[in-house]
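Changelog excerpt

This revision adds worked examples to the README so contributors can see how folded entries look when concatenated. The first example is reproduced verbatim below.
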Amino acid sequence: MRLVLFGLLLLGLQSCSEEYVRPTDVTKIYVEPILKDSTLSVRAIDFDEEYVYYGSADHIGMRALHSQFKVDISKLTVNNGKHHFKNVITYDSVPMHFRAIKVVNGDLYAISIGNPARLYKLHRKSNEPKLVYEEVNEKVFYDSMDFWNENEGIAIGDPTDNCMSVIVTRDGGKTWSKISCDNLPKAKEGEAAFAASDTNISIVGEHTWVATGGMVSRILYSPDKGNTWEVFDTPVIQGKPTTGMYSLDFYNENIGFAIGGDYTEANDSLANKIRTTDGGKTWQVVADGKGPGYRSCVQFIPNRNGKELLAVGFKGIDFSNDSGLSWKHLSDKSFYTVRFLNDSVAYAGGRGKISKIILR
């Protein structure tokens, strides 16, 4: 009996150690709920080995990915569930709304939309967020955040002057400063950005791309971690406050993809998907009038040579395996934002839910 059990154990270990190799096409997806809460409206999501972190309409939170066995001696209770930490941060007794977050070495950074914009750092060993930046302006509205490394990060927002709002940190998020409009491309009338999925910024090494939208939808580009900037036009649909790029991702220094459209005409797929192969200097419309209409988030699937993309929005989930030239509709399930763990697993957030998406 022991030999049989030992053999079965070895077989199980061998099976678990074998990595799943996904084919070049995706035929189906599995959506596994991680958290359901009718009050959630998740447009910003990130994760590490232990938690999924998110920003929502009235709080920032983190949900354990694995069950945690805890014994409370004082209450003689045992808990084997998944820890869920929810932090409601208020200003003038009103909960703040977070649509841009980033996790760096277990520390959570989150910036609120609206006036005032407040950026908090939540240390991995603390439950008390620390205010590290505040901006008071009737026009202030921050849309997205990312980091170049553990010390240097960036957040972008709508113009409060004659340029996009860009703030940076160079000291691990302890302090943030706003880049002067003298050092940024001038914004055009009606140009802003969308806080739809926290993916207006894409970073590869020291290279940074920012997608704007609205009446004008362009790419702001920095080759040196935000020290110098230039701007490139795009052929994406624009000309209305609700049009333009909603999401941007780069696979490497050359290959990038952006998606958007007009959320008020969500089925329209004309000029809402664009691709670059020269680092964002020039862009081409792809799948024009075909494939998904408005989507709020697009991501390259890791380790697939820049060929595979996943797009999500409130109209569903779509997949491309030819650099966005053609698309397959995988599901009508609604999500606002998505981030990949590997080429088969992603985490997504939407209205009332956070889920794990498995590609097969």
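The second example, added in the same revision:
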Amino acid sequence: MLEDDIYKDYVQALKSKDKDKVEFLSFIRAGLKNRGIELKKDKLEDSEALSVLKKEKKGLLDSKEIIEKSGRKGRLEQINSEINIINAYLPEPLSNEEMVKFIDESISETGAVSLKDMGKVMKLSLEKMSNRAEAKEISRIVKEKLSAGS
């Protein structure tokens, strides 16, 4: 399980005295624990843990954007390091071509023909891509495809 992998890496970072990684993994573990408390679970399913990691990554990417504008190089290196740590636990993202393929399949399976059917297509596409693509990007492609069809 993903939560166990994170714990093992946390222990390894403790042993190797990697202070930055220990602090960041501790922060991630706290987020996972809080989500577990919300869901009244001792252990999170991998999909639930992935949603916590994706949320943290999104926050880091937003912070990175702000920091790049402010020119604080030291903090930027730390954020990049934290993003790399999170990326190690996230599944490999789908390429644009793979996303289009899944979306085309979803459009065919749902019989969608216009933007009115976007919800059905989005739901099925998100299930098929299971955390390997950003919903915002999927939405953009679905809108493009369904707008062209109407």
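Reviewer comment on example two: Residues 46-70 form the longest helix (25 residues). The CA atoms of residues 53 and 59 lie 10 Å apart.
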